[in-house]
Amino acid sequence: MEEVSTEDKIITVLKENFADEIVNIESPYNFLTITLKPEKIISIIKFLYDQERYQYLTTLSGIHFPDQKSIVVMYQLHNLFANKRIRLKIYLPEENPVTSTLTTVFPAANWMERETYDFFGVIFEGHPNLKRILNVEDMIIFPLRKEYPLEDQTREDKNNKMFGR
Amino acid sequence: MEQTTNTSALSDIPVKEEKQYSYLNLGPTHPATHGIFQNVLKMDGEIIVEATPTIGYIHRAFEKLAERRPFYQITPITDRLNYCSSPINNMGWHMTVEKLLGIEIPKRVQYLRVIIMELSRIADHIICNTIIGQDVGATTGFLYLFQYRERIYEIFEEICGARLTTNIGRIGGLERNFSDKAWDKIDQFLIDFPIAFKEFSNLLERNRIFMDRTINCGPLSAEMALAYSFSGPNLRAAGVDYDVRVMNPYSSYDEFDFIVPVGTQGDTYDRFMVRQQEMHQSLSIIHQAIAKVKKEPSDIYRADVPEYVLPPKEDVYNDMEALIYHFKNIMGETDIPKGEVYHSVEGGNGELGFYLISDGGRQPYRLHFRRPCFIFYQAYPEMIKGAMLSDAIITMSSMNVIAGELDA
Amino acid sequence: METVSLNNVKVSEAPDGIEGAGFFATSLEKAVGMARKNSIWPLPFATSCCGIEFMATMGSHYDLARFGAERLSFSPRQADLLMVMGTIAKKMGPILRQVYEQMAEPRWVLSVGACASSGGIFDTYSVLQGIDRIIPVDVYVPGCPPRPEQIIDGILNIQKLVESESLRRRDSAEYKAMLNKYGIE
Fold it and tell me: Which of B51, B196, C88, C158 is the most exposed place for a label (fewest CB within 10 A)?
């Protein structure tokens, strides 16, 4: 058993190499979550892949915070060898959410990035095929953003008074 | 240039050979696609050169729908993710919310949850394996083993009232204790199912025709599986023993003694055999869980945290405090902590994860489902490159792609 | 285990008619209706959870084949009954329409489940709120998912419609007007 917990070790390693990219470190519910600046995120993930063996991409998704005018892209990595998970978040501006693609490091990120583009409009530069994946191809809005409603607005047969809306 | 009538001059003419490819549209409605997704295959005769998948034909916007519903109303939509084994999805969601709220679940409830989850895992693997049999041409397995899925449905009906989309359990435990009839049915199932399962295994496992058809069909190396973030039986068939029940145990799985079966080549035969072995292991886990439940006091079926767990209805009509808690729970007056939490369970197809961000209100701020089928289906075009069309069909059915989980 | 004797098997009743030595006279509609209703070839258009309940209905416990629907046809050209089971998203709508248009008359449509009948619990931007927005439906089976007994009840109702249908209905003006309402020629 190491004296220093692996969490502190990761934080130390990241602070040594990428100190000015880190914005915030916290551990909600014992899950290490690091917020970073968006510019060098791919090299940070590649560093974690090569040096710290975080070689499994669990998931990748977007979150929209309209009051902070930003769209967050959240990456979750898993080190299967030491059974350690880490969550990385980057904040992108709402009007122009552009970042680089992760498909160079993890081929699994291909469809996950397409889904994030489909729902939030985040552009991943360098992605081989950034098209909508789940919604119809000619949709113009990005439905999971908070300003868009859930229901289909073109229905005329539903009486909103009866449904408590 | 001389004009000759020499026919050998014809062989001097350079001939440019152009390969002609044909395009075959497989799906979205096709008897062999289990669920609706489309593949446009570029074929060189019978060999597949390239495949372009299109999904989203059953996109129901679960993640957006979840932002409109309170936590206990999201359980019915988690049912519809992997609808062949809905109790596992329900339990996973309940555990995520319990992690957020910090509720401690009593041991007996955890063991009951294990029994429910393993029964639904058996139900899911029955569908996958019998459909592999049917796609290869052996319909008998499907007809004989589906009878036992009816038995599992009867057990779920005794516990929660529904067969397929179960909405089983509540946040903080179960809605009612298991009745005696439910225990009788579980015991009877544990006696009858292994006999029929043995017949099915004898039919297919060492069958010359089945083995010739499925070995080396859609192989997958462990490196490619990890690069594409596979999980579940598909990953274990490729040789990596990553099982969420072992790596991040939840609901007291660390107290149970079971093996994680692993394949070698990651082909269709390995995926079939891994699921067969997992069914054996699930039966063993259910036996152990029943033994453990007998040692606990038999009237506990929920956690004693009335701020988050609905009190029993008899108390609500008779006791003032219970009435107040019931009102506060349903109308959303309880304090929900803010935070973000991620919890994953071992679903029928792999690591099913729930990423929940709560802003203190009764509805989640953001709920993201980490769906295993969506992630591993990306590798399908790579897996069938160079294969023949019929091999592509059984590769797809052995991966157990459920359309509800693919599109969400 | 009790033995099944032929006395327990219920045979379909012959329609009303005039019987004599070596002949049986009845109306053509009744004879054709009886033949059609006991040999429906369904097309299972199973998209989601209701499809799994359909698989249970086709299994040996609830056996749909007893009602004549033994041969499932996955090609619309060879099917009589389109059973739409499961959620139809807006992306899937044109495909459902294409499958329906390929079926030859007489054709019937059975909408199984809440999602196919009315959109179900998915009142969202991406789900078609009922398939009767794009194709005409004969029988609706409610439920989420409906029990196999309910699906069989839906098939029996279809059989009642098939039996009592007039032979000239598909050429009549009202039928053509109804198809025109959906934009189907």
Answer: B196
Q: Which of A58, A64, A143 lies nearest to residue B370, judging by beta carbons?
A: A58
The rounded distance, in Å, linking the Cα atoms of C4 and B388 is 47
* C118 Cβ under 8 Å from any chain A Cβ: no
User: Does residue C6 form part of some domain?
Assistant: no
Q: Are B166 and B156 in contact (CB under 8 A)?
A: yes
In a domain, C107, yes or no: yes
Size of interface B-C (CB pairs under 8 A): 86
Query: How far, in Å, CA of C58 to CA of B329, rounded?
Result: 42
pLDDT < 70 positions in chain A: 1-6, 159-160, 162-165
Q: Looking at residue B16, what is its pLDDT?
A: 73
Residue B7: inside a domain: no
What pLDDT sits at residue B261? Answer: 94
pLDDT in tens, A48-72: 999 888 999 999 999 999 999 999 9
| Assembly ipTM | 0.92
- Sequence spans of domains, chain A: 6-125
Residues of A in contact with B342 (CB under 8 A): 29, 31, 76, 85, 87
For residue B368, what is the nearest residue in chain A, using CA coordinates?
A61
| Any domain includes C175 | yes
Q: Domain residues for B107?
A: 52-407
Is C146 domain-assigned? yes
Find the domain containing C122 and state its range: 33-182
Q: Is B130 helix (H, G, I), strand (E, B) or coil?
A: helix
Any domain includes B95: yes
Task: State whether residue B59 sits within 8 Å of chain C by CB.
Answer: yes
Q: Residue B124: which CATH number? A: 1.10.645.10
SS (H, E, C) chain A: CCCCCHHHHHHHHHHHHHHHHEEEEECHHHCCEEEECCCCHHHHHHHHHHHCCCCEEEEEEEEEEHHHCEEEEEEEEEECCCCEEEEEEEEEECCCCEEECCCCCCCCHHHHHHHHHHHHCCEEECCCCCCCCCCCCCCCCCCCCCCCCCCCCCCCCCCCCCCCC
What domain count does chain C have?
1
Topology of domain A6-125 in CATH is Beta Polymerase; domain 2 (3.30.460)
What does DSSP assign to residue B106? P
Number of domains within chain B:
1
Secondary structure of residue B18 in the 3-state scheme = coil
Average pLDDT of chain B to the nearest whole number: 90
